[in-house]
Structures are given as structure tokens and as C-alpha cells.
């Protein structure tokens, strides 16, 4: 298109203007949806059922922090076991011995495909299958084992990827200096690999914290309740969902700081690669 003087002129909006207009339309549509939902909601019922102030205080004062502590203990123990077993499985996957690779692959694929709930049920029923068998430090031992089994299958692949990400030249340099394969692995490969794996392993820890909610499968006394079990019991006692909402906030108290740490570590790693 040209003006009267013959100069070409641009018609319509620029791509930036069109993108800005699309965003404005999306914001308006979202605001309308939120407004309609807010108008239709029964706020008094929602407040009484989910956010009863008296029940919030009662829940926080009677067992919440003990349940929060138990959740941390369950998750930390499962993570330690999963990390140790996952490291062993990753090394088996990278081994030159074929049976080791086969066993590790079978384990990883089996437990990655199996719901964590099934693992909890199986471990809780083991004493019925093997008379006289008792998990040490019960009920913590049962929960640690279940979380460790599930977590190790996922961590193994993360650790294997971290080991493979270590530059091959550094490994060859260590071998040329006379370090044995075991020394190279212990002093060169694993330390560098774990520095690379901190963000994904922290994500695995967050997943284990949420999987610890399956502890309700294991018979627990009130002193051993995790957040979910505690919230469900209190909600049933009071016939109100508020205690369960408070328990959910307890999970956020644990996981949100970890998520922030992961994002910062990933951003720092990305800026380091750009530099």
C-alpha cells in the first residue's frame, strides 16, 4: 500500500501490538471468569467449612507441629535410603557387567511403573507373609523403606544422568595421574555429578514429601501421624474440612522453601553456563 506521494506505508498493527492485544483479551476473559465464580460462590459456607478460625487455632495447637515433624522425619529417612540405593543402581546401570545392568534396569522400570501406594501396602503386609518378620524402628522403618524403594528408582536415573554429564576428559586426566577407577569415581566423578544433581534431587525430595501422605496405609498411633493422617482424623472428629486444609498448608511450609531454593539454583547454574 502506498501514500499519495508513492511511498510505501504499513497497514494494520505490528506483531507487538497484536500480541499486546491478545494478552489484554486473555486478561479480561480471566477477570470475567474469576468475577463470575466469586459472585456464584457461597462465601459463608466456604468460610465455615474450609477456613473456620476456631478450628484453625485448635488444629495448630493440638498436634499439627508433631505431625509436621513426623512428615519431615519420614521424608528425610526415605530420601537418605533412596539416595544411597539410587546411587548404587545408577552405578549398576553404568557397569560393564551385563547382569548388573539388567538387574538395575529391571528394578528401576518395575518400581517407576508401580504406584507408590502398592509399595506401601506390600511392605505393611510383609509380616503376614513372613511370620516373625518385623521392620526395625517401626513404623518409621516401614515408611522409610517404602519411600526409599520408590525414590531410589527415580533418583537412579537422575544420578546416572549426572555421572554421564561429567566431562570425560576429567576422568581420563584422573586416570592418567594414577588414580584407580574407584578413586576416580569417589574423588572426581561423584562430587562433580552431585553438584549438578542438587536441583533435580531436591525435586525428588519434594515428591517424597508428598508421597509420605500414603503413610495412612501403615497402622499408626496418634503420636506417629503425618500431616495427612492427622488432618483426616481431625476433619472426621470435627465434621469439618478446615483441619485438612491446615494440614495442606503444613506441606506448603515444607515444600515452598525447597521449590524456591531449586529455582534459584537452576537460575544460578543457567547464568554460569551463559558466562
For the record, the CATH architecture stands as: Orthogonal Bundle
Outline the biggest β-sheet.
none
Structural class per helix/strand content? mainly alpha
Helical segment tally? Answer: 11
Compact overview of the structure:
With 275 residues, the protein is an all-alpha fold.
Could you explain how this protein is built, in words?
The chain crosses the membrane at residues 24-41, 72-94, 106-130, 142-166, 205-223, 243-262. Keywords: Amino-acid transport, Cell membrane, Membrane, Transmembrane, Transmembrane helix, Transport. Residues 68-262 form the ABC transmembrane type-1 domain. By secondary structure, this protein is mainly α. It has a single domain (64-267), classed as Orthogonal Bundle (MetI-like fold). Helix content is 78%, strand content 0%. It contains eleven helices and no strands. The chain has helices at residues 15-40, 43-50, 53-61, 64-93, 98-113, 116-129, 140-165, 168-176, 181-211, 227-238, 242-274. Helix 4 runs antiparallel to helix 10 (227-238), helix 5 (98-113) crosses helix 7 and helix 9 (181-211) packs antiparallel against helix 11.
Write the layout of secondary structure elements.
Blueprint: H1 15-40, H2 43-50, H3 53-61, H4 64-93, H5 98-113, H6 116-129, H7 140-165, H8 168-176, H9 181-211, H10 227-238, H11 242-274
Helix pairs in contact: 4-5, 4-7, 4-9, 4-10, 5-7, 6-7, 7-9, 8-9, 9-11, 10-11
